[in-house]
Design a protein that fits this description.
Layout: H1 33-36, H2 55-68, H3 87-103, H4 106-110, E1 114-132, E2 135-157, E3 160-165, H5 189-198, H6 206-218, H7 222-227, E4 231-241, E5 259-268, E6 274-280, E7 286-292, H8 295-305, E8 312-322, E9 325-336, E10 339-350
Antiparallel strand pairs: 1-2, 1-10, 2-3, 4-5, 5-6, 6-7, 7-8, 8-9, 9-10
Length: 364
């Protein structure tokens, strides 16, 4: 039962200081390139009349979408962002610097040259396949208590991201015990994981896909992601944040109490990524990233597929120290089209060390 699949994790390190050498204007050939040349991008669905022209029906659809996808809110930056001394830029950088300090400081982050991670998906799904010969004739889908299933081994180094699938096979070595993955099979969670974490740009043009995937490989370090060459950050607002993927009834967010966060817009002029980062005002740590498309990319996507432009939300939690750097070990990423999300657990090591490969406890 060999199966597998495999994210650049902002907040995890490059030894390259504050970014890699950029190629000015490399993103300008993309749809919406002019937005990356200095204008403030806005993740606002354009008013393109498609599918239905009944105003009342459209209003009803918008209301339902807003209620269902409250986490996918993007702000319009209304300040002149061409001034290097812009108060919004200065405040955004202060917020990012505070996060760096909360994670362990610049010196600790700069010591990290590479990262390895064993990736586990968190799921309750188990599929039992009933076969006739080699053909599956029936499936029984069971819901189990939450468990972790290993999918991939990741290796980030410089601007490269290597992914290797975890091969599920029985061990006959008495020193290597067999895991529960031998008797569990999250058949339909695995492709969702691939869609959200590994192949989310495959529905775009080859040029856009290549650039975005290069960015996910190159921007895996926190400093490079937010302060690297070709990256601009702008303070937007503060807001009350509620976890869009609540899991435990004991979570404060599940009882209606949110966290105050500072929202920072991130414009990656080299790779085209447009994001909003949510930083916890109490701890200074990164809690979530919202990511969308440029307005022209939105229009292209709507005309190409006749559906809403994609928006992703990734949350960061279970911060634990690794070689002096406070590092998130649990991520949850979801999309609006289709409305799916998958949680992953990471066992992380830095600078050549091998990560722990024991099954994480997903009940914590």
């Amino acid at each position: 039962m060999g199966r597998a699949p495999a994210l650049g994790v902002p907040g995890l390190a490059t030894g390259q200081g504050e970014g890699v050498a950029s190629q000015p204007g490399v993103a300008s050939g993309l749809p919406g390139g002019e937005y990356l040349a200095g204008k403030a991008p806005a993740f606002v669905v354009p008013e393109v009349p498609i599918l239905d022209h009944d105003a009342r029906l459209i209003d009803k659809m918008r209301q339902e979408i807003a209620e269902r996808e409250q986490y996918a809110r993007f702000h319009v930056l209304d300040a002149d962002t061409t001034d290097d001394k812009s108060p919004r830029r200065s405040r955004a950088r202060q917020i990012v610097e505070r996060a760096i300090a909360a994670m362990g400081g610049r010196e600790a982050l700069r010591k990290i040259r590479e990262m390895k991670a064993r990736v586990w998906i968190e799921t309750t799904e188990h599929v039992v396949e009933i076969k006739s010969g080699s053909r599956v004739v029936k499936e029984v889908i069971l819901e189990l208590p939450p468990y972790a299933y290993p999918t991939s081994d990741w290796h980030f180094r410089a601007q490269h991201w290597e992914r290797k699938p975890v091969v599920i096979a029985a061990s006959f070595d008495p020193n290597v015990p067999n895991g529960m993955e031998l008797v569990r099979y999250p058949k339909y969670t695995i492709p969702k994981f691939v869609q959200l974490y590994e192949s989310r740009w495959r529905s775009f043009s080859p040029q856009v896909r290549l650039l975005r995937e290069q960015g996910e490989a190159a921007r895996w370090h926190f400093i490079d992601h937010f302060l690297g060459e070709g990256v601009e950050v702008y303070y937007l607002t503060s807001e009350e944040y509620h976890n869009p993927y609540p899991r435990h009834e004991t979570d404060l967010e599940d009882r209606g109490r949110g966290r105050l966060v500072d929202v920072v817009q991130v414009v990656d002029e080299r790779y085209g990524h447009l994001q909003e980062a949510l930083f916890d005002q109490e701890t200074g740590l990164l809690l979530a990233l919202r990511e969308g498309l440029t307005p022209e990319e939105q229009r292209w996507f709507m005309m190409q597929y006749a559906r809403k432009p994609l928006v992703w939300m990734t949350t960061y939690g279970h911060y634990q120290p690794v070689q002096g750097v406070l590092t998130p070990h649990r991520l949850v990423r979801g999309s609006n089209e289709p409305p799916i999300f998958v949680a992953i657990h990471l066992k992380i090591s830095y600078n050549g060390d091998e990560p722990d490969r024991t099954e994480p406890d997903v009940t914590k």
